[in-house]
Specification:
The complex is a heterodimer of chains A (110) and B (113).
Chain A: E1 9-13, E2 18-23, E3 31-38, E4 45-50, E5 55-56, E6 61-64, E7 70-75, E8 84-92, E9 104-109
Parallel strand pairs in A: 1-9
Antiparallel strand pairs in A: 2-7, 3-4, 3-8, 5-6, 6-7, 8-9
Chain B: E1 4-7, E2 10-13, E3 19-25, E4 31-37, E5 43-50, E6 53-57, E7 64-70, E8 73-78, E9 87-94, E10 103-104, E11 108-112
Parallel strand pairs in B: 2-11
Antiparallel strand pairs in B: 1-3, 3-8, 4-5, 4-9, 5-6, 7-8, 9-10, 9-11
Classes of the chains: A mainly beta (110), B mainly beta (113).
Chain lengths: 110, 113
């Protein structure tokens, strides 16, 4: 049980921002939100993670609501290579395993 | 340099055979995993090893036996292969002392005929 809810699919135009939502309404105080993506025929790739503050790195930004019940992954300028399945995962700090859900299939269109 | 490497990339075999998949990581991580991705694309954890010790076994059949000769290697041996074992198997590693950032290999596509 991944315990997060994501839309099954989304589309985005190349060059525009892709905003991928995730609902984790039952998240507890010591659980982080992690985002991974899986490009076709490749292994999953770590993108970003956060606890309660917004985070940004070279790949994406993560916006977590103040009540921590949902978050949004932002790819600021999507490219065709960002077409992938994006997984939002909640993880307890120190946990030994990541449980992947169904994710969101993002298609970036030219 | 590939951080997490798996061999072979493709494996086609007959039912009842025994096969192995090898995994090596050069990241200096102390924890390694095997995940299975079935035809419906669900990615499920199978095993986790930390410094050659089994940490997680997610009720995987006894036909699957992981072996960790050292912390840089985690091999997966499968006995008496069945049709339902057909899947993509991913190896992963992480530094247990930091966070849950996993590094995955490129996968092994196993097809049992």
């Amino acid at each position: 049980d991944a315990k997060t809810t994501q839309p099954p699919s989304m589309d985005c135009a190349e060059g525009r921002a892709a905003n991928l939502p995730c609902n984790h309404s039952t998240i507890s105080g010591n659980e982080y939100v992690y985002w991974y993506r899986q490009i076709h025929s490749q292994g999953p790739q770590y993108i970003i993670h956060g606890l309660k503050n917004n985070e940004t790195n070279e790949m994406a930004s993560l916006i977590i609501t103040e009540d921590r019940k949902s978050s949004t992954l932002i790819l600021p300028h999507a490219t065709l290579r960002d077409t992938a399945v994006y997984y939002c995962i909640r993880v307890q700090g120190g946990s030994e395993k990541l449980v992947f859900g169904k994710g969101t299939k993002l298609t970036v269109n030219p | 340099d590939t951080a997490v490497s798996q061999t072979p990339k493709y494996l086609v075999t007959q039912m009842g055979n025994d096969k192995s998949i090898k995994c090596e990581q050069n990241l200096g991580h102390d924890t390694m995993y095997w995940y299975k991705q079935d035809s419906k694309k669900f990615l499920k954890i199978m095993f986790s090893y930390n410094n050659k010790e089994l940490i997680i076994n997610e009720t995987v059949p006894n036909r699957f036996s992981p072996k960790s000769p050292d912390k840089a290697h985690l091999n997966l041996h499968i006995n008496s292969l069945e049709l339902g074992d057909s899947a993509v198997y991913f190896c992963a590693s992480r530094d247990r002392g930091t966070n849950e950032k996993l590094f995955f290999g490129s996968g092994t596509q196993l097809s049992v005929l």
